[in-house]
Task: structure prediction
Amino acid sequence: MITSLIASIALGTPIAGSVSVKGSDTLLILNQRWAEGFSKVNPNVSVDVTGGGSSIGIRAFINRVTDICASSRKMKASEVQSARSNRGVANEIPVALDGLAIAVNKDNPIKSITMDELRKVYIGQIKNWSQLGGSNAPIITFSRDSNSGTYGFFQEKVLRNQNWGGQVRFLPSTSEEAREVSRTENAIAYGGVAYFVGKPGLKLVPVSAKEGSEAFAPTEANVRAKKYPIWRYLYYYTNGKPTGSTKAFIDFVLSPAGQKIVEQVGYYGLN
Amino acid sequence: MKARFVDWIMERLVAISGISVGLLVLSVFYFLASESRYAFDRKFPYGYRIALQPASAPSAEAVEMDPNASVITAHMDGLDGLDDKESLPMPTLAELGGVATTGTGSPLVSNLSEADPTQLTRDDWRAWKSASEAETFFLYAYGTPELKEDKVKIRWEPDASYDPKLGVHNIRLKLIQSPAGITAPKVDVDLVAQPSGEIELPAWQAKTDAERTKGYVFKIEVEPMAASNLTATLGGFFKSEWSPTSQYPKYGFLALLTSTLAITGLALLFAIVPSLLAAVYLRELAPRRVREWLKPVIEMLASIPTVVLGYFGLMLLAPGLVSTFGKALSFDSGRCVLTASIMMAILIMPTIVSIAEDTLGNVPAALRQGGEALGLTTMEAVRRVVIPAAKPGLLGAGMLGFARALGETMIVWILAGGTATMIPFSPRALVSPVRGVADTIGIEMANVEFEKPHYGHLFLIGLVLFLLTISINLYAQRVSRRSLSGV
Amino acid sequence: MATGSAGILVLIIAIIVGTVLWKGLPAISWEFLSTGPQDGMTKGGIWPMLRGSILLMIGTLILTLPIGILAGIWLAEYATESRLTRAIRASVSALAGTPSIIFGLFGLAIFVLKFNLGTSLLAGWLTLAMYSIPMVVLTTEQSFKEVPQSVEEGAIALGLSKWQTTWKVMFPNALPGILTGLVLTVARAAGEAPPILLTAAIYYSTEKLSLGWDSLNRPVANLPYHLAEGYRQGGVIPEKIIWGTCLSLMLLVLIVNLAATIIRARARAKLNW
Result:
């Protein structure tokens, strides 16, 4: 890789080499699309994309086996430390913005929900829609399974790290959740906005940060303005400032073309 | 000469290979066990809210604490940004009787005039300690000038998601200092036996910041209950709740084990009779030419990758079951015990058929002919003579099928629903979403922090699964051997 | 009733194989097998996955072959009946029944983390070899034992040494059985997702698929992992491609199986016992 890099600089030809991106399953689709888009501009750079989860990516980063770690959570202090002692300064680069939408069946009369109510629904304290101003029917809760970064984020942000209630059903993907919600009258689910928008049979519930405060729908404007309460950044980590083909790839990711892919996949671009 | 040298080399090589393969089982065991050690690095969390309130304040429902509040160790390190609240003049250790402390709680309000009179002082307190660690800290409690009542109460409650019964520490709350001139009742509460409650005390007001430490001082003592972290971790392991990613992580693997056993047992139930009958057909009834092509065809089923079987179950069996029995059994999703065990039965049938057929073949022809000589028909001879003779071997075949299903990952992952809770002991069990042992490893390993307790626990459940399948396999071998030597 | 049961079994096989064929065949074309995924995995083919599975299979075969066969020979011909050999034989056959996810864990702990191979083809080979060796040992031993005693006695009577008898006389006779066992085991390993989930698999790469020493350090896409991800990412990879992948994986395994069966039948026909 180094020799080809030197060659490319010396000859002034387009860059060559390889970049590996590893980590978050939430970012996997995005990484893959970016790699595909990038290879059309730079066919001589090979980009490897692996999922497995944020922790797998972080571990690989610390062990120097990946150039870029894709993570849907911030690195923990202990991880930053072991990265520093083993490799170098972990350089954090936000690459996309993500909002999680709350979906219910289209016939559900509920108008909005607070963060606290949402937490109680998922930890099993609120079990009936009537407690939320809906009809008298049990709430059927759906979640992503623990494989996904979305699960971890929801548990941290909404459940505030409390236990999931015993009746929560864990599904492998957000599109499965969408399918279940549209055909189950009393269901509720969460997931990336893009997976729900335009799906028949369900509607997205506005969420308010506190009781009494205004509820916002998960629209692009509200997520960007941070008015909608359930949002997060998705990150890349590189070893110090990126160089060579890694830099070229990240430049592409942050370029208008790269950020357009973000919108296509269903997350929000940075600008 | 040369040939003999080659002989010598090859014979050594052969022996080395044989013995190293024999050692393979030990090395698998060793690495699973050695990575499991991270499970025993775990720290056990506890979380209480202890507050001083006016006596008339309503008793709240179960408290849910601010997740970022007073993680004592972090608090002391100043990592959580609460440093500004620690600028209180603390009494020296000598003034408090020289008790060694590892952390000290503080009132949440730092400016007396900002205090909310209904919640004068309080402390949300959560910490993680290994089972052998002790902790002592102090809580200063006082009223502000705005306090109107002449009685206050000290109130304590566990964090809503914390179950004190699952803790491994003895925790006591003691009043060790009362304000000058006030005689207060004795406060010495076991927070594990009595996780929530309140005790009334005479009111006392701190007029200035400096006076705050002159009021009530409570001491909270945390002492190890279990002998060691090892026993405490194992104690937590043999419980039924598996929620490794929550604030108060629980690593009880019995729910996973029960689900695996349920799916596997049910699969065996579905598979055993048709498999044995098919084996009888193959060995006793089928014309030779039919047997010659039928056995490979059935064994072909065993070679279909399990991911493919999982997909088949997901796309066809699950929706099929829902549309046929959904109303009658009132289940909404096809991902449940029933679907997984049907698919699992299909997976293990060829294994059972194949081994059972071999076992039947090992029954000496003399026995069979003897039966027929007594005037029995073929089927009668099979039933009265051959099957009893082959019984241990048939049992062994069933057990090998069971062991095969026990460790199956993809079918359970795709079809069982993924909920890590205890399977109910009722007919609803059939349609409950569950998660088993092997698929939990597959699902969670990707998202754990390596070499941390959660990682260690996944190896620990792997180790249990390994020992379980090994013992069943060994036992099945013994049983089958007895069957061969017994006749 | 027994006949009925066998019939049901055949019916189940027919339904499963039939469904996969019916759903998967429309997806399969030369294009599908020879190109990589495109448009965010929604179009194109599965060549990188097919290639990865074949690579995994070949490497596993190469690693399993010597040690599996030598150890099998030891158990069949050299190991004297003792408590130790009984223990070894028992542990090998117990290991042969050990769940594949356990080997995945084992591979993660040693090859990926301890030896620091990372997720790579090499780590995948080693893990799958560990998974395959016990079964190959057992089938090798079995094949040796199936060679009639008279063959061995005859060779020794001719004055051949123990090793010469084993290698020149017994081995050729046992070879068909050994090969069949080897091929079947490796085919089974190639269809397993759990061992390579954490040790060798990659979701997507834009690399030009060349082969060299460097390939050993690189993770590979492969069919079972593609299916596992297809399930995990739900809805990203279209159903048609998934069924096509199912069919390709099933055919890959079945074709290898069929080949093994034919080899065995041919070789058996040549041997004269």
About this structure: Confidence is low (pLDDT under 50) at residues 66-122 of chain B. The CA atoms of residues 124 and 460 of chain B lie 33 Å apart. DSSP finds twelve helices and ten strands in chain B.
